[in-house]
Amino acid sequence: MFAPQGPTLRELAVQALSSVERGYDLLAPKFDRTPFRTPDAVLAPVSRALRELGPFDSGLDLCCGTGAGMGVLRQVCRERVTGVDISAGMLAAGRARAGVTATAPRVEWVRADARALPFGPVFDLAVSFGAFGHFLPRERPELFAQVHSVLRPGGRFVFPIAAPARPGSLGYWTLLAFDAAMRVRNALWHPSFVMYYRTFRLADVRAELTRTGFDVELQSLPELGRRPDGSPRCRLVVATRAR
């Protein structure tokens, strides 16, 4: 699962016993050599879908990490692309990885908590990849309200969401075991490290986005295949700020 240049078992253990912010600061130099980085197999179909929805002037990558989603935004935004993350280490790695370019769009990296975004309603598009497990269910309404507040009317909040693993499957038991281990870890060790894979359920998320003031549509991502029952393995949530 990890490249030879990726983190050692000891480094992963130290990260797991740290806070979310400190843990990612430690992991940042080797993050792109782990399976935690959003793979190109997911980024490419999202890019295709956004090109069909766009173009956009300004885009925000929420919890951008080292910038996998920033590359998507640079393909569909004409003027400004902003990545925001709480980890200074991840932002530094993202800046170094992206390098300096004089071509449009303008790229910015901002350290901030996604639950307290330091922007007005200046974005046409917000995306996020793989970060929602770091927020407890009770935190999601405020998180979604923050995204709503930084989008212009008609702006879109877009993110992929995978179908849940089938009960009894290897993926189901793996995710169940991981979440259980995290709950035990957080009960016994502080600071907590919030990362739960099974709490971000589509029906709940859709209802919360609607209550926040978004009109929500779902698109399939056919490039990522279908389950045995014919349903998509991954959907794209397209939430439009209605007011």
UniProtKB/TrEMBL annotation:
Coiled-coil boundaries: none
Gene Ontology molecular functions: methyltransferase activity
Pfam families hit by this protein: Methyltransf_25 (PF13649)
Residue spans crossing the bilayer: none
SUPFAM superfamilies per record: S-adenosyl-L-methionine-dependent methyltransferases (SSF53335)
CDD domains: AdoMet_MTases
Domain Methyltransferase: 60-155
UniProt keyword Transferase present: yes
Gene3D superfamilies with a match to the protein in the record: Vaccinia Virus protein VP39
Domain of life according to the entry: Bacteria
Keywords attached to this entry: Methyltransferase, Transferase
GO biological process terms, semicolon-separated: methylation
InterPro entries linked: Methyltransf_25, SAM-dependent_MTases_sf
Protein name: Class I SAM-dependent methyltransferase
